[in-house]
Amino acid sequence: MKIIGKTIQIMLLMAVVVFTSCNTENKKANLDYTSTELSAEERVKDLMSRMTLEEKVAQMCQYVGLEHIKAAQHDLSEEDLDVNDARGFYPDLSINDLVEMTKAGKIGSYLHIVTVEEANYLQSLAMQSKFKIPLLIGIDAIHGDGLFSGATIYPSPITQAATWDDELLYKVSAQTAKEMRATGTHWAFTPNIDVLRDPRWGRTGETFGEDPYLVGNMGVATIKGLQSDNFSGSENVIACAKHLVAGSQSLNGLNASPTDVSYRTLMGIFLPPFKRAVQEANLFSIMTAHNEVNGIPAHMDKHMMTDLMRDRWGFDGFYVSDWNDVSRIHTWHHVADSFKQATEFSVGAGLDMHMHGPHFAEYVIELVNEGKLPESRVDLACSKILEVKFRLGLFENPFIEEGSYKEVLFNKEHQESSLEQARKGIVLQKNSGILPLKSSTKKTIFVTGPNANNQTTLGDWVSPQPEENIITMYEGIKKLGEEKGYKVSYFDSGDRSRKMKDADINKAAALAKKADITVLVLGENSFRHDWPNKTTGENIDRATLKLSGRQMELANKVLANGKPVIVVYVSGSPIAEPTLEKRAKAVINTWEPGAFGGQATAEIIFGEVNPSAKLPLTIPRSVGQLQMVYNHKPTMYIHKYNTEKKTPLHPFGFGLSYTQFDISTPVVSSNVVSKDAPIEVSVEVKNTGKMAGEEVVQLYIRDNVSSVTRPVKELKKYQRVALEPGESKTVTMTLDAESLAFYDINMEYCVEPGSFKVMVGNSSADKDLKETSIEVKERIILKD
């Protein structure tokens, strides 16, 4: 079904005429919700006063788009629907049924609309409904509007976190919002502010790493960039923080598997980013999680949704379910006897919108009429969804001018931001002196590996993009390498790691033997259009942190030549291959660096860019070390493994540079912190090498004695600093009572009196930190 050409133009013209006529009639009838002179709250109140229960419940219902349904019906069976979280259709509803429902005002939202033509078509249908309420269209714009062909694809969130650059993330999020609005979407299902605690989880690349403070900063920056101050206007969208909560520490690392953690861990590790998103960024939507937490499915957790987030911390937006997860309270979790009872539990707990599909609306209406759900619960949900539509300006202009998006998508400014993020997000994990490569008129470089010359650099939540918009690893290395005088060649050794052939592995090794240097591009594939071959990403979790498929066979044969090998990883998940890293001359972890990943990687290889990224997670030596995080408790490593070291392969916050930095012992403005008297912590940072570069100065604290055990280190501040060779700068960071606070033995949020260690350096490793101490004289109670 293609919605194009004169048909859509005629329908839009009819819709505009109908809307204009109705608007005039409404003014005559004094229907104030049509007046832009009133506040959004006043318009919501007036509109809702005229709506029936059924009309209000309709706003709580979200469906996938018509073109999405047609494609899914072609590829999926009805049996596939219950376990597929990316694609869907409705066995009991035809596309024509959905068209008529939209005309009748029975659908409040759609998701995954990936053409302007379809977005306009659906809005034209909504304009034929009684109140002309526009649709709210959502999409998983996780790192750019990646499901839309031609959008700017920024590095994936784990790569963005490796930049440790909040301001840059704010900037690219604002650019993403502009691209979304230009393509007819209004609601980004991002950021994922799950705090990663198990890197086997396939959605690692969708997170900002393992630390609550770093995740919170990145989440706040993303939300503010997408929403601006209040998400009003034509260039902002609403953000959706997800997933509430703790799915990133599910049992066995499997998506949707149960999570069983203490309430203290929830409050100390997993929930702080959500609290900050609400209180610092005016977050307006939250998505609940697939998983259960301590026996309670997240979609019916009243304590989390209502008691804590809404009543205690002041969340004033609306909740949306994850894909089909209300019905799964019955079918998966077995704590409801039917979809109807699951709806009662979920909406009663605080859920406001259902993603996705039929029956939900009829169940809500029945439950209200039976007295099992209060109508006030529906009123709150509907009012928040309508408020969004008013504040985004959708009542005045629900349509997008076809073709206008071409001036916004992938424009020069957005391209430059994507490239900058890639440059700052690529971590140099090893360098035994080979990098940066110097210019040469004689040497040859051979490039091979499954991720060397394809779009796996784009990561998950991206559709295939125009080839001319993407610079692959080989393309980037070839272009810059030849400018530096090298002869650069490539061989396709197989672009799917589990399907590599003996002949191709052997030929790649033979070609590598003839070259002076081999760049081996390895890693994982999270590209969702190639779902059967995914090795990480949503719903593709890992039982190992080693390279998938036959990649180590390829690596071992290439290394056996005795020639220098530079390993480049492309993966949203960390790779733990200690033997490979020991044998390689250099290891570059690019994560998923986006549209310009090949260019940024080449610039680092040849020294055009000095690497400055830092790991946003700990990379263990093997899965046997899990759980391995930097902010562990004091008794974590009292004893040893019998077959494995207890130190990580690479610590949190680690990343090499082509220059050297000296960071002085921290100096504090006062040795005492009080409730109203924060202190400043200063260090001198000097570039002692021969190349300009940027260092990320990291500040950690440790509470020396506390009423319950606290981590051995907690990240509290960080700051990027750029220095020329020989240059020094003073970096000053502020510590206040909030920075030292925790939940004490009585779960009171406070700072206990006593001494604290303050550690500053360029990674979380003890050897990279210098320390001083501060003191708190009296107990400080903080509002929570």
- The percent range for strand residues is 15-25%
Name the CATH superfamily classification of the domain at 409-625: Glycoside hydrolase family 3 C-terminal domain
What proportion of the residues is helical, as a percent range?
25-40%
Class based on secondary structure composition and strand pairing = alpha/beta
Oligomer: single chain
Name the strands of the widest sheet in spatial order.
5-4-3-2-1-11
The CATH class of the domain at 409-625 is Alpha Beta
**Regions with little confidence, pLDDT below 50 for 5+ residues:** 1-8, 10-29
Care to count the β-strands? 28
CATH second-level architecture of the domain at 409-625: 3-Layer(aba) Sandwich
Describe the secondary-structure layout:
Blueprint: H1 5-28, H2 40-48, H3 53-58, E1 61-64, H4 66-75, H5 95-103, E2 109-111, H6 116-126, E3 136-139, H7 157-163, H8 166-182, E4 187-188, H9 212-227, E5 238-239, E6 241-244, H10 263-270, H11 272-281, E7 285-288, E8 292-293, E9 296-297, H12 302-312, E10 318-320, H13 328-331, H14 339-349, E11 354-355, H15 360-369, H16 375-391, H17 412-425, E12 427-431, E13 444-448, H18 473-483, E14 487-490, H19 502-514, E15 517-523, H20 551-559, E16 565-570, H21 578-583, E17 586-589, H22 597-605, E18 661-663, E19 667-668, E20 679-687, E21 693-703, E22 714-723, E23 728-735, H23 737-740, E24 742-743, E25 749-751, E26 754-761, E27 769-776, E28 780-781
Parallel strand pairs: 1-2, 1-11, 2-3, 3-4, 4-5, 6-7, 7-10, 13-14, 13-15, 15-16, 16-17
Antiparallel strand pairs: 8-9, 12-17, 18-20, 19-20, 20-23, 21-22, 21-26, 24-25, 25-28, 26-27
Helix pairs in contact: 1-6, 2-16, 5-6, 7-17, 8-9, 8-17, 9-11, 14-15, 17-22, 18-22, 19-20
